[in-house]
Amino acid sequence: MYDNQRDLLLKESDRFPPPQGVRLSYGTAGFREDASVLLSTVYRVGILAALRALKTGKRIGLMITASHNKVSDNGVKVADPSGGMLTQDWEPFANALANASSSQDLVQLIIEFAEKENILLNGSKSAQVLVARDTRPSGELLLDAAKHGIGSIIGVVAHDLGILTTPQLHWMVHVRNKGLNGSERDYFHELSSSFRCLFNSNPNNSEWKLKDWDNQLVVDGANGVGGQKLEMLKEMLNGLAIEIRNSGKGEGVLNEGVGADFVQKEKIVPLGFGSQDVGIRCASFDGDADRLVYFTVPSESSNRINLVDGDKILSLFAIFIEEQLTILAARTKATKIDFRPTLGVVQTAYANGASTQYLKALGLEVVFTPTGVKYLHEKAAEYDIGIYFEANGHGTILFSDYCISVLQPLYWELSDVSSGSKSHKAALRLLAVTRLINQAVGDALSGLLLVEAILQHKNWSIQTWSELYQDLPSRQLKVKVVDRTMVETTNAETEVVKPPGLQEAINSKIAKYPKGRCFIRPSGTEDVIRVYAEASTQEAADDLATSVAKLVDQFLGVGSSN
Ligand code: 16G
Ligand code: MG
Predict the structure, then answer these.
(1) What residues have CB less than 8 Å from 401, skipping those under 6 apart?
(2) pLDDT tens across 116-149, in order?
(3) Which residues pair with 517 in a beta bridge?
(4) With a 6 A CB cut-off, is 530 part of the ligand 1 pocket?
(5) Which of 196, 161, 185, 202 is nearest to 79 (CA)?
(6) Which of 75, 188, 200, 531 stands the most exposed, by the fewest C-beta atoms within 10 Å?
């Protein structure tokens, strides 16, 4: 490392001293903490993103957000050149950087890491990091710290994209690394034009109908960035009739009693919704708009909701894609192009058992990964068409390069042999989905438009969609423990391997309940062990969860469950 690089790093990092007594961990989706302790962490993640940009020679993304956490928290995560999550190999370095206790230690770590990764720190290469933040008040100051971090590596510059949703930033990294423009306007144009294309491919629809389209959709924007961006998207869809509440314009506090996480976990109506919404199609985003769930308010007399979660969104998407592929398969014989993509569905252990059974009964290949987008995304990318969703509403559909490269010529061939036919339209619809659905990460805005287009296409109400299958009753609990790393799991988190004997004890509890299923896992974002239980009745699911929570308490010492 050249002296000027070392001096710059020492000088800049002295301005961002690490907090005392806080141990930081990159976790499932970046660092998240009370915003007041994060300046040094974000500065250091800026350095990491700059090093990653030099290493890959591509644009890297850095997002300031704490997603569904309370407004006083904030966080930071990094997007790799594909627009996906930071490669897991770099997570230990991220942890080491964040926890280095002095500027000297920090510089030493950087020197060693750069040497190991063959990153030249002599300013001979240039690179760019795209940075953005959500609407949290602490975001501006933290973004500034990130820019200082990026600027501490000679040759790397930060490009500030302002306030964005997390998926918008991931999308921009993905698109710009392909040599395309990737502005916010391009993002909205891509979503709105592909949505229009899908909408018009339905014989009963036409462009002018977009305005008069069943206007009974109300969206809860979690008082975050998603509501604001949906307003902008709406403009580009000529006033598509969506009512947006909790849009972050002073109606309430970010994620407080609102948003996808609240709706999915509590299963009660978010603030701003109530008896006036009975029977209407409603949707909720989380604070940074990478989660989407739907719901209805079934009755005026109760605040309970009927949840249509990520599993049901996944099922809707899978049915639609499978239908288009079946139509195409019947006709591709007439063309020179042999198109037989592999299709896979990816879930986690939190997926309701009824959804898995339903998807398997459709003949789909269903696979499981541990919790966290990075795992699901990686698995889905192994298929030509990989559909992944967590029950909490994170998910998307990935199309392989092969798939996209074949669909386009296939569409043109079909326009020769059978223009306007069912198969021609099926190819058109699949092509539109490849453009509408975010290829970098799950995206509430693009997911919402795809759900809406499919419901229109099938002429389904939210009730018809919700009745595809009946969810098994479930219960989630968390147990505070001294050290959550004492629990180790395998088989996509469904079996405990450590501490010994605990899985056997859980099994004997499960055996008592018809359709019983239960697993425990250490949280990746909080210092707790999570318990999930499912059974044929709500009472049984509650009992099973409570008895397993007690076991966790017994095996892992001090603690209380809630
Ligand atoms: C993060 C993850 C989410 C996961 C959740 C689990 C991303 C972008 N987000 O929010 O996928 O479901 O953590 O939290 O990966 P837990 O480990 O505390 O249960
Ligand atoms: Mg989120």
Answers:
(1) none
(2) 999 999 888 999 999 999 999 999 999 999 999 9
(3) 534
(4) yes
(5) 161
(6) 200
Q: Could you tell me if 229 and 342 lie in one domain?
A: no
Number of domains in the chain: 4
Q: Does residue 359 form part of some domain?
A: yes
Going from the C-alpha of 144 to that of each of 123, 148, 158, 162, 535, the distances in angstroms are 22, 6, 10, 11, 49
Range of the domain at 538: 474-556
Alpha helices in 79-164 (DSSP H): 91-99, 103-116, 139-151
Work out the average pLDDT over 474-492. 93
Which positions are catalytic? 67
CATH of the domain at 156: 3.40.120.10
Whether the Cβ atoms of residue 39 and residue 141 lie closer than 8 Å to each other:
yes
Structure letter (DSSP) for residue 270: P
Instruction: Indicate if ligand 1 lies below 6 Å from the C-beta of 525.
Output: yes
Is the separation of the CB atoms in 546 and 476 below 8 Å?
no
CA 61 to ligand 1 centroid distance, Å: 19
pLDDT of residue 414: 81
pLDDT given for residue 555 in this prediction: 94
Say if residues 31 and 41 touch (Cβ distance below 8 Å): yes
- The CATH number assigned to the domain holding 482 equals 3.30.310.50
Q: In this structure, how many other beta carbons lie within 10 angstroms of the beta carbon of residue 274? A: 12
The pLDDT assigned to 104 comes to 96
Q: How far is residue 43's CA from residue 146's CA, in Å, rounded to a whole number?
A: 5
Domain assignment present for 182: no
Residue 3 CB partners (closer than 8 Å, separation 6+): none
Atom of ligand 1 at shortest range from CA of 77: 8
Least confident interval from 170-184, 196-210, 419-433: 196-210
The binding site for substrate comprises: 390-392, 521-525, 530
Q: In sequence order, which ranges of 39-90 are alpha helices (DSSP H)?
A: 39-56
Q: Same domain, yes or no, for 131 and 16? A: yes
> Quick check: pTM over 0.90?
yes
Ligand 1 atom nearest the C-alpha of 348 is: 12
User: Are residues 129 and 37 part of one domain?
Assistant: yes
Looking at the structure, tell me whether residues 117 and 216 fall in a common domain.
no
Q: Residue 439: name the closest of 510, 358, 370, 380 by CA.
A: 380
Q: Is the CB of 288 under 6 A from ligand 1?
A: no
